[in-house]
Each structure stands twice: as structure tokens, then as C-alpha cells.
Amino acid sequence: MRAALSRTVPVVAALAAVAPAPAPAQPVDPPADEPPPNVGAERDGATRVFPIDGPHTYSDGSGDRPHHEGQDVLAACGMPLRAVKDMTVRRVATEAAAGRYLVLHDSSSGADYVYMHMSAIDVAAGEHVDAGQRVGAVGQTGDATACHLHFETWTAPGWYAGGSPHDPMALLRSLGDS
Fold it and tell me: Is the pLDDT of residue 15 over 60?
């Protein structure tokens, strides 16, 4: 065994001497239209992704104050926001309280997913989005007092169309967030 090992060590050393040194790893942001590397859980055969692509913490939750129908997720302004699953953009608008917002519609369940206070919106009404696709960026628009995503989920037939708000925390936790 020692003889075989002593014959391979010089070969490995010779190869290492002529092989180029590996380049140092550089962080690379994924292109805006590609899903992040941490694409989330699969449920019912559908890929699901956490809506914020980066560090975040939780603030006010559903029902913490009157008419607060969702979960506030604090993150840096400009942080990419991702579609939580394959859906269609139902609405893109700006309102005084919600600021810039969008509503994504899941045609298979009839549910809606609402993203509010966005600094940028990268999609248009009627457009199909894939799970993990960038849909915009975290902001502080409307009556927001800090950079965050206000995230809501609504049962069929959807947001202010006869559906009911549903606390999104279980969904957010199921997407691998802590």
C-alpha cells in the first residue's frame, strides 16, 4: 500500500504544479428573470418560493391592528421580491395607504397573493409569472413607516372580489423561512 501511495503522490504534485490556480469565488446576483438559488418547497407538485430574496425579519402580523389583513416582513428597500408560485398578475396599482402594490392570482385555487409598499414593480397586469420570478422590490411607499413587504393571502374568489383574508404566516413558514 505504501509503495502505491508513494508512486501517486509525485503524480498529484506534478499535476498541481501545472494546473492553473482556481479563481477566487465572486458573488453573483442572479439575473432579474431567473429564480433565486434557494427556490423553496414543493407542495402539491407546485414549486413555491419565499417572497423576499434576502435577509428579513417579521413585524406586525395579521390582526395585530384593525384592518391589518396580512404580515409585515421587514427588509432593505430595493430587496428583490419574488412570485411565491406560478400565477397571473391580476392587478398593478398605487393607492394612498398601500403605496405601489400588485395582486397575483392563482387560477388553480382562486386565491390571491397581495404585495404592498413596493419601491418598484417589474410585471404588468395580465402577465404570467413563474415561481421565483422577480416581480418587484421592497419599498416604503404609501403609509409605510419603514421598508417592508406587506404580504396578504386571500381565499377564492380573491382580493376584494368576495374572498376572505387569511393569515399568511403559515405559508411564509412553510416556504422554509424561520
Answer: no
